[in-house]
């Protein structure tokens, strides 16, 4: 893999980190086999531990409900805006036809 830049998915990164942390495979061995730099591996590990708490956080039902209400309100607002734009475009086309521009 020398000279070839590859992109690893989140699942692949976790798999590689797991090999090191659980299976006790040396970082150098993983990096050599996968063609990545050790600094990149350690960046992934740092990011993994910094964001790991999110896996254990629970969203409250109240927060979920507020989020759903917010999404519904925004969707309604968007539908209303689309209706207004549609009416304006319809009037615009009608006016252009009356003026002989279409």
Element layout with pairings:
Layout: H1 10-21, H2 27-34, H3 38-51, H4 61-98
Please explain how this structure is put together:
The structure is a single chain. With 102 residues, this protein is mostly helical. It has two domains: 10-55; 60-98. The protein contains four helices and no strands. The protein has helices at residues 10-21, 27-34, 38-51, 61-98. The longest helix is centred in the C-terminal third of the chain and has 38 residues, at 61-98. It is elongated and about 75 Å long.
Shape: elongated
Rg from alpha-carbon coordinates? 27 Å
Average pLDDT figure: 88
Q: Which spans have pLDDT < 50 for at least 5 consecutive residues?
A: none
Helix/strand structural class: mainly alpha
Number of helices: 4
In a nutshell, what does this entry contain?
By secondary structure, this protein is mostly helical. The chain has four helices and no strands.
What attributes does this structure have?
elongated; 102 residues; single chain
């Amino acid at each position: 893999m020398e000279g070839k830049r590859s992109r690893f998915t989140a699942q692949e990164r976790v798999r590689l980190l797991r090999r090191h942390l659980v299976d006790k495979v040396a970082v150098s061995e993983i990096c050599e086999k996968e063609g990545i730099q050790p600094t990149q591996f350690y960046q992934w590990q740092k990011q993994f531990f910094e964001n790991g708490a999110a896996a254990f956080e629970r969203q409250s039902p109240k927060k979920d409900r507020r989020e759903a209400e917010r999404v519904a309100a925004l969707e309604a607002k968007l539908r209303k805006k689309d209706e207004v734009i549609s009416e304006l475009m319809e009037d615009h086309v009608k006016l252009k036809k009356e003026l002989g521009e279409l």
